[in-house]
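Task 17 of the worksheet. Students: predict the tertiary structure of the chain below and write it out as structure tokens. Keep your answer in the requested format; marks are given for formatting as well as content.
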Amino acid sequence: MSFADKTRNKMEEMTGAAKERIGDMTDNERMRAEGATQQSEARAKKAGESAKDVGRNARDTFRG
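Model answer:
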């Protein structure tokens, strides 16, 4: 995973956390849910990129 991808995913996760907190503080259920969803999507992207990296590393190890 490139540094840009990691940074983009982290920013997305942080934005989602901020939205969720603002939604909690203002009693805005829609914003809270949107923030939670945004965080989940960022974490899923992060996990997918990590899995790709593991696959690439394993492939490179076996190729010699």
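Marker's comment: The chain has a mean pLDDT of 91. DSSP finds two helices and no strands in the chain.
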